[in-house]
Design goal:
single chain, mainly alpha, 6 helices, rod-shaped, coiled coil, Gene 12 protein
């Protein structure tokens, strides 16, 4: 089973080659099975084909697992960004209102604390993790880190929300690329009352 933190691009290339080899072997066995009339040999060929299919299935599962860590981390970053944008304190803390003292315990104070936590303690470790996996290049990671680092209550509300939108677009674009690269299959949704066992190494910003 691939481990999170490894370079998923290298894993994807190796696993894709393994899957392709298995698919070619299966097609070759299909042709042999179609021509074979000896029952004993036919059973042997069918067993070989079953073994090849199993290897391909294992490789596909490993490829899915290799991508899961990156997908989870991108998704958590997007969720955290949405929480910042939807915070009731945003409009009370940015722009001209940032020039006034913040009342402890207010929506504005909660927003400022969330923003600081997101920038320093949540987003930067996520970027480092994604770079380590190979899901982000150094240049992509720097661009995202700089964009998040530039988020400031001193910005106008429109400029702040526009910046969040640009960061979200970059994250969604890269997430889409990773999913296509790995032929990623979305997990089946749990039935009501069931708890998901799949998750990233990063919890929600607010401990959810």
């Amino acid at each position: 089973m691939p481990l999170r933190g490894q370079n998923i691009s290298a894993q994807n290339a190796a696993l894709s080659r393994e899957i392709q080899r298995a698919e070619l072997q299966e097609k070759a066995l299909d042709r042999q099975i179609a021509r074979e009339s000896n029952q004993l040999k036919l059973e042997e060929l069918k067993q070989k084909q079953a073994d090849v299919r199993q290897k391909a299935d294992i490789a596909r599962a490993d490829r899915q697992a290799a991508a899961q860590g990156a997908v989870d981390t991108f998704s958590t970053a997007l969720d955290s960004l949405n929480e910042i944008e939807q915070s009731p304190g945003l409009s009370k803390a940015v722009g001209i209102r940032s020039a006034f003292p913040t009342v402890p315990g207010s929506d504005a104070a909660n927003f400022e604390a969330r923003l600081d936590t997101f920038k320093a303690q949540t987003f930067l470790p996520m970027v480092q993790s994604l770079k380590g996996m190979g899901a982000l290049s150094d240049a992509e990671g720097k661009k995202l880190s700089d964009a998040v680092g530039a988020l400031s209550p001193k910005m106008s509300e429109k400029a702040f929300r526009d910046s969040i939108g640009k960061i979200r677009n970059q994250l969604e674009s890269k997430l889409s690329t990773v999913k296509k690269q790995f032929d990623y299959q979305e997990p089946v949704q749990n039935m009501p009352g069931q708890q998901s066992t799949t998750g990233s190494n990063f919890s929600s910003l607010w401990g959810d």
